[in-house]
Amino acid sequence: MNRQGARDGFPLRTVGQVRQWVEAQLATPEPDLALLSIVVGQLEHQWTAGKVGSGPAAESTVGLGGAGAASGLTIEPPLTWPLIEASVAKFESIIRSYCDSLVLSAALSAPENVSAIRALIKHVADIIWNTLSKSHYKDRPHLQSIYSYLTGNKLDCFGVAFAVVASCQLLEVPHVHLALSEDHAWVVFGAEGTETAEVTWHGKGNEDKRGQPVDIHKAKTSWLYLAGQPVVCDRHMEVAALVSSINPAVSANVDSVECGVLQQELLWLLYDHGHLSKYPMALGNLADLEEIESSLGRPSCQQIFDQAIRVNRDVYANHHVYPYTYQAGYHYRLKQYKAALKSWANAAEVIKRYCYSKDDEEIYKEFLEIANELIPHTVKAASLNPQAYSEVLQDPECFASILQFYDGICCWEEGSPTPVLHIGWAKPMVSTCSKFEAEVRARVEIPKEASEDKEDEEEEEEAEGKLNIQRAHEHRASAPGGFLLNNNYFKCGRNPSSSPRSSSS
Ligand SMILES: CC1(C)CN=C(N2CCN(c3ncnc4sc(C(F)(F)C(F)(F)F)cc34)CC2)S1
User: Fold this and answer.
1) CB of 498 closer than 6 angstroms to any ligand 1 atom
2) Residue 285 in contact with ligand 1 by CB distance below 6 A
3) Secondary structure class of 249 (helix, strand, coil)
4) Is residue 260 a contact partner of residue 244, using CB atoms and an 8 Å limit?
5) CA–CA separation, 354 and 363 (whole Å)
C-alpha cells in the first residue's frame, strides 16, 4: 500500500478503528513494518507511560465482555496522520541519509549477490546500532518499537532486529526476513531464505556478531537457535511479531486495559488471517490474554495452548520448549497439578535434544524455577491438602512425569560442554521425590516397547552425536592455535509479562 492509502481511517479514535486500519495494511502484499511499528508503539506509549499509580480511568473498565465493547475503547488524544507520517518520514530519512549509496546500489543491482546483500544488512545493522543511546537501558520495557527508536534512540534486542528488517523493507532490499527462536532474533536472506546474519546482541557482556552468519555449531546444537527450527517470518508474520511484542505493562503488576485489548484484538485479526499458524509463542501470548479476559465465540485459552503445541509438533518437529511451559503455567494457575507436571515433563523432553551452553541461560533459569519452585510447591500443596489433590501423591503417573522431567534435564547435560545440574538442584529433587511413597513409586510403569530398542539405538546415536560434538570441541580447543568456541553472545532474553492484567490508566 502506498502511504496515501495508509492515511485512510485516520484520525484513529478507537481500538476498533486501529483494528480496521491494521486489517487494511494486512490486505496488502507488503504491510509497512515501520509504519505499523510506529502506530503500535505510539499507542503503547500513550497507554503505559507515566500511568503508575493512576487509578482505573473512567473510560477503561475491566470485564469488557465482547468485541464490541473492546473496539469502543477510546484513544485519547486520537492518532492523527500528520504526526504518524512525520515519524515515518523521519525514520526513512535517518536510514537513507546514513546509508552508503555504493553499498545500497551494489545490493539492489545484484540481489542474487549474497555478499552484497550481507554487506548491506550489516551496514543497516551498524546504522541502527550506532544511532542508539549509549546509556545502559537494555532490560527496560517498551523498547521494542520504531517509535521508541525515534523518540529515545532506545531499542531492545528484538527491536534492533525488527528495525533492521523494517529498514531493508523501506530500502526495497528483497527477501530479508526476521528469524526468531525462543530467546534470540536474527535475519535470513537470499532468494531461498537460506542465508543468515546476526543483526543484534544476545545476553549480557559479550560482543555481538553483526553481519556474520549464525555460528553453524550453535545453529545445530543449541536451544538458542532451536537447532534449525526457528520461526522464519514472512512480512505478515513480522507484523505478528510486532503485535506479539506489545507490552501492556504500566508497572510490575499493573497492565493497561486498553493496550491489552488492542494486543488481543490484533492477535485475533492475525489469527483469522492465518498469520499465527506457524508462530507458537504468539499463540501462547494470545492464550494468556484469553485466560485473563475471554472473547465471545472464540476458542478457549486451553484450546489455543493445545494448538501451539500441535504447531510445535507438526511444523517444528517438537523443538520448541515454550509451548509446554505456557500450557504448564495455565494448569499450575488453575491448580491442575497432574496436567502441569505432564506439561513440564514434555518441556524437558524437548530440551534433551540440545547441548547446554552458556547461551541458553534463559531456558536454564526457566527449568531451575520449575524444579526448585513450581514442582516443590505442587507436591507441598498436595501433601498439605490430600483431599483436594490426592491424585498427585497417590498417582504413579505424576511420579513418572517428575522422573521424565529430571531425565530430560540429565540428557540435556550429557555431552554438553557446560554442566547443568549442581547441588542446588539436588535438595529440591530429593524433597520432591521423597513425597511419593514406595508403594506409589513401585506402580510406575516404564513400557518396554519393541520400538524401545529402536529408540535405544536412536538415543545411542544421539548420545554418540553429542559426544562427537564434545570430542570435536575438546580437540579443537587443545589443537595448537586451537579454535575456541566463542561462547560470547549477548543475551537477548525478554522477561515474559504473564502478570494478570488489572485495571489501570
Ligand atoms: C512460557 C513463557 C515463560 C511465558 N512467556 C514467554 N514468552 C513471551 C513472549 N516471547 C516472545 N513472544 C513472541 N515472539 C517472540 S520472539 C522472541 C525472541 F526471539 F526471544 C526475541 F525476539 F529475541 F525476543 C521472544 C518472543 C518470549 C517468550 S515464554
Assistant:
1) yes
2) yes
3) strand
4) no
5) 11
- Residue 52 confidence (pLDDT): 79
The 3-state DSSP class for residue 231 equals strand
366-384 pLDDT, tens digit per residue, is 999 999 999 999 999 999 8
- Say which residue the cell 499458524 belongs to: 277
Determine if ligand 1 sits within 6 Å of the CB of residue 144. Answer: no
Share the mean pLDDT of the chain. 88
Q: The whole model's pTM is what?
A: 0.88
The alpha carbon of 203 and the centre of ligand 1 are apart by a number of angstroms equal to 14
501 lines ligand 1 (CB under 6 A): no
Predicted pLDDT of residue 461: 63
305 CB near ligand 1 (under 6 Å): no
- Cell of residue 240, nine digits: 505478528
Among 277, 403, 418, which residue's Cα sits nearest to residue 355?
A: 418
ipTM of predicted assembly, 2 dp: 0.98
Ligand 1 center to 147 CA (angstroms): 20
Residue 176 near residue 189 (C-beta atoms within 8 A): yes
Q: Is the pLDDT of residue 67 over 60?
A: no
Q: How far is CA 328 from CA 379, 382, 444, in A?
A: 15, 17, 22
